[in-house]
Amino acid sequence: MRKLFEPALLLLLRLRPTDWQRTLAWAAVVGVTGALSTLGFRACLVGMERLLYGTDGLVRAAESLPWWLRLAAPALGGLLAGAVLAWEGRQAHAPHGDYMEAVVLGRGELGTRSSLLRALSSLCTVVSGGAIGREGPMVQLAALTGSVLAVWRGMPVARRRLLVACAAAAGLTTAYGTPIAGALFVAEIVLQSLSTDTLAPLLISSVTAHLTMAGLTGSHSLYRMPEVAELGGPAYFLCGLLGLLAGLGAPLYLWLLDRAKTVLGRWQIARPWKLAGGGLLVGLLSLQAPQVWGNGFSVVDSVLQGGWPWQALLLVLLFKVAAVAATTGSGAVGGIFTPTLFVGAVSGALFTVLAGMVFPAALPMQVGAAIGMGAFLAASTHAPLTSLLMIFEMTENYRVVAPLMLACVLAVSLSRLLRPDSVYASSQRARAAADPRLASAGDLLRTDSCTVGPGASIADVEQRLLESRWRHVYVLDAERHFQGVIPLHELAKRLKAPHDPAAPWPADLLQPRFPSLSEDMPLWEVLQVFESHPGERLPVLDAAGRLLGHVTKTDLVLMLREQLAIS
């Protein structure tokens, strides 16, 4: 009977998922949790807006308020947001950073208290009209779910970071409804790697997040852009020119934001009052242009429909840039992604109106706004592929793809000449500071090692190797001291000969000389050991020779590649 079922049993055991396949499964799980956390934060924002203003949309709310409330609301919101941040700073003892830093720095662990309090601070800023994106706390909360799950499962650092990155991609996908661009944003800007090892889990996470969002709220494009006719040669020429102008304007925009942080950072006042001052500046600007309230989604959606005069576009553009500078410069927590889209869309529409005086009807305002949005985003982030797919997925308009490709490439080329650092340069510099030579084998430690004792039977050793699909099984004594390994190929030779499965495994199968690692061994030394060892895993021993776990070559390559990508 055993001989009858043994082939089927061996086949089932060989179908056990590998580490890579389990990573993809966990990527799908965090895609769901990241989407749920993002949708939850969005529901809180909508509920607060309805409760406070009785309407949806911050611009509409600002237009309906009397002047004194339009002035006071952002200041009061900034005061509350600053108070939350001040309290969070007194409570937290570990570095937190924004969500991009959280994806790639440290041990892949996010502080739950810090993340929740920063999200609450951002909620206060956004609901009160602060000119900042809501995607920042959304992605931070999504990344938090990935961190919690990775820590709970005891994953090594490399896999933990990857899972947090997957959750961040899920959050971005849910925030904008862009599953492809959500994955590429994290791969291209954060991880700076488009390899299968990183991109496949990100795509899985983004897809499951998109499905979760579609099942709960429906699936639709973020912006309602009308259909446009096929573009001709003059339109392509103008799109290329718009890309160059975006390459000039984005560095200036980022310089203004940096200057605002420097100037407002010199205020020697408590943090709550500093954020209140930034909110007061936004309130003053909104007296003339209520469109500066919020992240600007409704304004961009309106500009994509066309029909704006150039005077209104210029006024809104100048006031919005000033409002974003005041909000971010005061230290408010939030995203810069959506405000950047706003500046690009309005700039593109303004360019279209002015260009129409020379080339009448050559480039519709809707197309100019979409091209400007993508080109300005590409010039600010230095990520043309992400920007291209982001605009296409948000508008679902294929006719803008070809001219957008031209504009994005030209914008990035010129922007990099004028300003080598992107809008996320601070996160990338912090990431670069995480020198791989400071990491050690203990950072990659896995504890689910395949082990047997000296008196185990041949059947037990065979079963352990079949279940784990390892090429070696570690032999430990009663106190977990490492004795050596039993190779799979040597055991297979014995199994072909007549033997008693219940008998102890033969002592001559043991290979006591097997390379090992110490927990504090730096990664460059771990790499040297792997260079002389063809296997996938190496045991990690403490000073007394007891087994602590093992390190895989895949995890080592993942961590080193993350660091080399930015060097």
TrEMBL record:
Its main location: membrane. Residues 445-501, 510-566 form the CBS domain. It is a multi-pass membrane protein. It holds the Pfam family CBS. It is found in: Membrane. Keywords: CBS domain, Chloride, Chloride channel, Ion channel, Ion transport, Membrane, Transmembrane, Transmembrane helix, Transport. PANTHER family: CHLORIDE CHANNEL PROTEIN CLC-E (PTHR43427). PROSITE patterns: CBS. It comes from the Bacteria. This is ClcB-like voltage-gated chloride channel protein. The keyword Magnesium does not apply. The keyword Transferase does not apply. It comes from Pelomonas candidula. The chain crosses the membrane at residues 24-48, 68-87, 162-187, 235-256, 276-300, 312-336, 342-363, 370-392.
